[in-house]
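User: quick one, fold this
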Amino acid sequence: MKAFLLIASLSLALSGCSANWGWYVVNPATDTGLSNLKFLFGGLYYTLLLSVTAIGISVTIGLLIALPGLSHNRYFRGINRTYVEIVRAVPILVLILWVYYGLPQIANLSITVFWAGVIALALSDSAFEAEIFRAGIQSIDKGQYEAAHSISLSYTDMMRHVILPQAIRRILPALGNQLVYMLKMSSLVSVIGMQELTRRANELVVTEYRPLEIYTILVLEYLVVILLVSAGVRWLEHRMQSDQRQ
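Assistant:
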C-alpha cells in the first residue's frame, strides 16, 4: 500500500512539474493516451514470461553445476570453477548478441528472439545460481549428512529430502534477488527485437517523440513489478520459516 501511494504521489508530482511536458501521450482519459498505455503494458506479459522461463532454467542449471563443486574430486571441482568463471566474465548484453547472431551459425539452427533471450539470460544467471546453491549446501551442518548416511539414504535421496530443503530456506532471499535481477536484465533483450516493456517504450518514443513521459511510465512499470515480486519472496520466506518452526 505504501509503495502504491508513493508511486501515485510521484506521478502527480511529475504531472505538474512543467507545462511543457506532454503527459497527454500516456493520459488514459484520451483515446491516444489509452492506446499508448495498452501498447506499453502489453509488453509486461513478455517480460514476465521471459524472466520466469529464464530463471527456471538457470536455477536447474545452477544446481547441476553446483553439485560437482562440492565433490572431493579435483576434476569435478575444476568443471564447476571453469564454468562459473567463464560465464561470469562475459557481459550479459554481449552474450545476448552472441546467442542470437552467432549460435545459429555455429549450430546451424533457427532460433527465435524469445528463446535467444531465454538462453542468454539463463546461461548468464546460472553461474550466479551455482555459487548460491554451493554456498547454501555447504552451510548445512555435517551432522545432517551423517544422520542421512546413518539411515542408509542414497546421495540423491539425501540431497532431495534432507539437504536441499534446508539449503533452499537459507538461500531463498538470494534466489529472490536473482529473480529481481532477471526482471531488470530482461530489458537488454530489447536490443534484438524482443517485444517486452523496454522495446515497446522505445518504439513508442520513436512515434510520439516524448521520451521523458514514456520512460517515466516504464520506470513505474518496473518499479511496481519488482516491488510485488520482492513482497512475494518475503512472504514465501516467512511462510517457509513458519513451517520450519512447526
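User: anything notable?
Assistant: The first helix runs from residue 2 to 15.
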